């Protein structure tokens, strides 16, 4: 199994850099994208998002620019106290009826870090695999194939481990069968994806 020196926090770093590599966004839009596209995999509170962005900015992987938004939409306020406090702490408070917001963009160093994460981060946990896959357009076809092959290896390991288990109750047996069904379905899907990738004429890129 492939290992990585990246910390467990790198999955969040990968997610944020991957989203900002597509386009610059302010915090609200970034959180909306995370909730919409990755809500099944993770939740990110305002109290986690802004510190993570600040950390990336201190490392020079992203930059922020304050923009004046005269057409601020009050619907963007969630009504949740934690969210409002997070906005205020980021200096995004209204000024003379207008709201100043920071737009975050990825830097050249951030692009490099994103590629390093995509190529080197461990995909032992499901969440990280799906994050890597979501931004794998930045990889070559050969690298995308290796990503799927690594996932196949991991799934096979899990299926072997499940096969060795002897559930001590009906309910545990249901869990085992459900997990086996899910892994088998993912394996079949990956095999189809691998077939398509291997048949692409640009594989030698």
Description of the structure:
By secondary structure, this protein is α+β, with helices and mostly antiparallel strands. About 60% of the residues lie in helices and about 10% in strands. The chain contains eight helices and four strands. It has helices spanning about 10-20, 25-40, 45-60, 80-90, 110-120, 125-135, 140-165, 170-200; strands at about 25, 60-70, 95, 100-105. Strands 1, 2, 3 and 4 form a four-stranded antiparallel beta sheet that branches. Helix 1 packs across helix 5 (about 110-120). It is globular. It starts with 9 loop residues before the first helix and ends in a 7-residue tail after the last helix. Mean pLDDT is about 85; it is low at about 1-10 and about 95.
Mind telling me the C-alpha Rg? Answer: 21 Å
Proportion of helical residues: 55-70%
- Strand proportion, as a percent range, falls in 5-15%
Determine the number of helices (DSSP H or I, runs of at least 4 residues): 8
The total strand number stands at 4
Shape: globular
pLDDT < 50 runs, ≥5 residues? 1-8, 93-97
> Mind summarizing the main beta sheet?
4 strands, antiparallel
* H/E element order: HEHHEHEEHHHH
Summarize model confidence as the mean pLDDT.
84
**Estimated structural class:** alpha+beta
End-to-end distance: 26 Å
What's the structural blueprint in terms of helices and strands?
Blueprint: H1 10-22, E1 25-26, H2 27-38, H3 46-58, E2 62-69, H4 81-89, E3 94-95, E4 98-106, H5 108-120, H6 126-134, H7 141-163, H8 170-198
Antiparallel strand pairs: 1-4, 2-4, 3-4
Helix pairs in contact: 1-5, 1-6, 7-8
